[in-house]
C-alpha cells in the first residue's frame, strides 16, 4: 500500500495577495469600457475650454497601472494652454459651474471635480500648462487655496521605474478598506 499526501490547502501570503490583486485588476487597455467615458466627455470639455484646450487624456492610477477595481474611477487631465488668462481658481470654479449648468451633479475635490458618466466616477483635473514647450502644468489645490506643479508624464515614469505597482495597489486597498486618510501614491 502506497501512502500519499493530500494536496495542501494552505496558501502562502504571496499567493493570497496575488489572488486579491488578480480579483482587483482593472482593464486599462485601449478597449476598456471606462475609456469610452473620455469620448463622451471630450465634446463637453471642448465646448467649455474652446481654443484653450490642448488635450484631454487619462491620468492618475488608471494610466499608471495602479488602479483597483473596488476603487476605480478615471481621472481625465484637462490640459489648457499657457495663454489661458484666468487664475487657476477661476478655471476650477468655471468648470464646476459649467458642469452644473449642463446637467451634471459635480462634486468638488481637492484638485479635481468629480462627475458620474454612464455609471463611472470621473475626476476631471483642470490644469494650465506652465509653458508651451514642456509637460509641466499648474493646478488649483482647493483645500489649501493655492496651486501646485504637476507633470503627468513624469508621474507615470516614476511609478513604472519603481517596479512597485503591486505594492502600491495592495497599500491602496488597505487604505480604502480601513478608511484611512492619506494621499494617493
Computed CA radius of gyration, to the nearest angstrom = 20 Å
Largest sheet: 7 strands, mixed
* Spatial separation of the terminal alpha carbons: 57 Å
Q: Give the overall average pLDDT.
A: 91
What does this structure look like?
The chain is an alpha+beta fold and 185 residues long. 37% of the residues lie in helices and 22% in strands. It has six helices and seven strands; from the N terminus they run ααβαβαβββββαα. Strands 1, 2, 3, 4, 5, 6 and 7 form a seven-stranded mixed β-sheet that branches. A hairpin with a 4-residue loop joins β3 and β4. The longest helix has 14 residues, at 36-49. It is globular and about 65 Å long. The relative contact order is 0.14. The mean pLDDT is 91.
Describe this protein with a few key phrases.
7 strands, alpha+beta, about 180 residues, 6 helices, about 35% helix, 7-stranded mixed beta sheet, single chain, about 20% strand
In short:
The protein is an alpha+beta fold and about 180 residues long. Helix content is about 35%, strand content about 20%.
Chain-wise SSE layout:
Elements: H1 13-23, H2 36-49, E1 53-59, H3 60-64, E2 74-80, H4 88-101, E3 107-108, E4 113-117, E5 120-129, E6 137-141, E7 146-150, H5 152-162, H6 165-177
Parallel strand pairs: 2-5
Antiparallel strand pairs: 1-2, 3-4, 4-5, 5-6, 6-7
Amino acid at each position: 500500500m502506497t501512502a500519499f499526501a493530500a494536496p495542501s490547502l494552505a496558501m502562502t501570503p504571496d499567493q493570497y495577495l496575488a489572488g486579491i490583486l488578480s480579483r482587483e485588476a482593472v482593464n486599462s487597455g485601449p478597449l476598456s469600457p471606462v475609456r469610452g467615458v473620455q469620448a463622451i466627455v471630450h465634446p463637453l470639455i471642448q465646448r467649455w475650454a474652446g481654443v484653450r484646450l490642448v488635450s484631454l487624456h487619462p491620468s492618475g492610477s488608471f494610466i499608471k497601472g495602479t488602479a483597483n477595481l473596488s476603487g476605480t474611477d478615471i481621472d481625465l487631465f484637462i490640459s489648457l494652454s499657457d495663454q489661458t488668462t484666468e487664475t487657476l481658481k477661476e478655471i476650477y470654479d468655471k468648470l464646476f459651474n459649467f458642469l452644473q449648468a449642463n446637467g451634471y451633479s459635480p462634486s468638488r475635490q481637492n484638485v479635481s471635480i468629480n462627475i458620474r458618466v454612464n455609471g463611472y466616477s470621473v475626476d476631471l483635473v483642470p490644469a494650465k500648462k506652465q509653458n508651451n514647450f514642456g509637460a509641466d502644468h499648474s493646478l488649483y489645490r482647493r483645500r489649501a487655496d493655492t496651486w501646485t506643479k504637476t507633470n503627468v508624464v513624469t508621474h507615470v515614469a516614476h511609478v513604472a521605474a519603481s517596479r512597485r505597482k503591486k505594492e502600491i495597489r495592495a497599500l491602496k486597498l488597505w487604505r480604502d478598506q480601513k478608511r484611512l486618510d492619506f494621499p494617493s501614491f
